[in-house]
Amino acid sequence: MQIEAQNIVKRYANHTALKDFSVTLESGKITGLLGPNGAGKTSFIRILNQIIGADTGKITIDGQQLNKSHIADFGYLPEERGLYNNMKVLSHVVYLARLKGIDKSTATQNAHDWLDKLELSDWKHAKVRQLSKGMAQKIQFICTVIHDPKIIILDEPFSGFDPINAELIKQEILELKEAGKTIVLSTHNMNSVESICDNIILLNSGNKILDGSIKTVKEAHRPDTYHIQFRGNVIGFTNALWAGYELIERKQLGNEHFVATIKLLNDNTINNLLDTVIPHVQIEGVNEVIPSMNDIFIQAITEDSDG
Prior knowledge:
Alpha-Beta Plaits, six-stranded mixed sheet, 35% helix
C-alpha cells in the first residue's frame, strides 16, 4: 500500500507540530522517520493511526482517503510499551490478534508460529511479568504484526534489545519488507537507519528538511574530502596543495609515513589532487570520506535551526 500525505498541518494550543507536511511512503520499502524530540514525528504517526486528526491536508492510501476501514491494515509498535502483566504469553498474543479481527484458530496458529520464530516457545505459558525486558519487547513486536498488516509503524523497535536479539528483529523487519509491506521506522539510532532503511524523512520543528533514498541523501552530502596515505616529504606534499585544496588534518604514522585529510576546492577532482602530489610523495591509499547518517542528521538540523 502506498501512502500519500499532502499538506498536513497539525496545531496544538501553543505550537504547530506539522507545517504543510507532504510525503510519500512506498510499499516494499522501509522509510526512516527521523528528527529531534518535538520535531513532529509522533504527531504524524498518530495521524496515520487515526489516533488524532490533522487540522488541514489529507492522507490517501492507494488513492483512497484514509478512513476507519484502514485501521485493520495497520500494525503499530508504540514507543511506550504496554502489556498485561498477569496474562500468559500465548493467551495475550491470541487476545490481541482476536482484537484485530482474526478468528481464534488462525490467531492461535499465528501466535505459535511467531513465538517459534522469535525463540519464545518455551515461555508461552509463562505470565508476562516473568519475562525479561527483551522478551517482553519481542511479544510487543509479535502483537504488532500478528494480523499480517500491510502497513507497519515501528517506534524505536530496537530499544531494550541486546545485539543478538536486535539482529533477529532486524531480519524479521527485512522479511516483512520483502513481503511488500509499507514500513515506517521512527528512531534516534542512526546505525539502524543506515543498515535497514531504504528512504529517510527528516523533520525539524514541524518542517520536512530532508526526504529521499539513503543513497541520494548521502550523495548530496558528500563533502569532497579524502584521506590520503603517503610516504615521503611532508613539506613538499603540503606545499603542492596551494590554494586548490584545504588540508584539514595531518597525522604521522611513522618515519616519513603520513595520512592527510584534504578537502577539494574550486571544482578540483581527486585526479587533480593526485596529479598535484604524486611528484612529491609515494601514495599508499586513497579513501573518500563518506558522511554517516548521524553526520548528515546533525548537519541538516544545525543548518535548519541556524537558518
